[in-house]
Amino acid sequence: MTTRIILAGPRGRMGLEALNLIADTEHFELVAALDRTNKGKYIDEVVPTSSLHAPIYTDIDECLAEVEADVLVDLTTPEIGRVHTKKALEHGVRAVVGTTGFSEADLTELRTLAEDKGIGCIIAPNFAIGAILMMKFSQMAAKYFEDVEIIELHHDQKLDAPSGTGVKTAELISEVRESKKQGHPDEKETIPGARGADYDGIRLHSVRLPGLVAHQEVLFGGFGQSLTIRHDSYNRASFMSGVKVSVDTVMKLDTLVYGLENIIE
Ligand SMILES: NC(=O)C1=CN([C@@H]2O[C@H](COP(=O)(O)OP(=O)(O)OC[C@H]3O[C@@H](n4cnc5c(N)ncnc54)[C@H](O)[C@@H]3O)[C@@H](O)[C@H]2O)C=CC1
Ligand SMILES: O=C(O)C1=N[C@H](C(=O)O)C[C@H](O)C1
């Protein structure tokens, strides 16, 4: 059966890859795109490399009122992704959200909305299978190593810090270890921020440099040994198999799932 998709953020780095995925997947159909500009134009006009001929909207209310769709795929910014997801669910359209930077309160609100409507929503901080494994392996390792720091490294156009993947990794680790203040009890930052962000005692460091795509190291330290778990995405195509699985899976869900580790066995 064909899945009718609205893609939000079609001209972004992830959006352009998602257009290729939709074009290459027989049972996916792009029925509309949500862009910041280009109202009334068609995708193949504004993205000449795409063969997809679907109308562009700049207003989600108008789009949802005029277009019959099954799933919204959102790859935009935290502020706008939050609004898109809420409106899609309110309208009975399922959502697959790759956009990062959602708060716990956002997740709670969206879960309630999805369950009230009895439809699926997947919020995935990282769609790459290697990144999911990195997070799962980190959670396993945290049972044996209680001291851990996370270094996430991204391109310098990224808006949110720490990354969604970094936050999700810290959440998964804190599920299995006791809260702990790491480092020396009397340590002092002589330059604020030197020790990174603090998630339940886990230090999170964000690197932003041109040339990078998406990378993360999880460093565990014990007596006389260390363990480093690292994942690298070298291009955005690395995320697309996860987007495809998410679109297929969201059609069968009646709640919100946060993190692909919950749907990939
Ligand atoms: N879950 C995952 O595996 C991944 C998630 N991401 C996340 O996806 C999001 C997008 O990342 P990129 O593509 O690198 O960013 P980008 O900046 O290249 O693309 C964002 C796009 O959103 C569009 N946009 C902004 N406001 C809009 C509006 N009101 N309506 C429609 N479109 C609007 C922008 O015009 C832009 O084209 C970020 O939150 C990023 O963290 C990125 C890579 C992988
Ligand atoms: O903005 C990005 O590029 C990425 N964002 C996601 C995140 O915040 O974790 C996923 C991946 O790291 C790429």
UniProtKB/TrEMBL annotation:
Q: What is its EC number?
A: 1.17.1.8
- Read off the InterPro entries from this record: DapB_C, DapB_N, DapB_N_CS, DHDPR_bac, NAD(P)-bd_dom_sf
The protein depicted here goes by the name: 4-hydroxy-tetrahydrodipicolinate reductase
- GO CC annotations? cytosol
Q: Where is the Dihydrodipicolinate reductase C-terminal domain?
A: 130-263
GO molecular function list: 4-hydroxy-tetrahydrodipicolinate reductase; NAD binding; NADP binding; oxidoreductase activity, acting on CH or CH2 groups, NAD or NADP as acceptor
Which parts of the sequence belong to the Dihydrodipicolinate reductase N-terminal domain?
4-127
Q: Does the keyword Plastid apply?
A: no
GO biological process: what's one of them?
diaminopimelate biosynthetic process
Q: Which HAMAP family match?
A: DapB
The entry marks the following residues as binding NAD(+), namely 9-14, 35, 98-100, 124-127
Q: Where is the composition biased (Basic and acidic residues)?
A: 176-190
Q: Where in the cell is it found?
A: Cytoplasm
What this protein is reported to do is described as:
Catalyzes the conversion of 4-hydroxy-tetrahydrodipicolinate (HTPA) to tetrahydrodipicolinate.
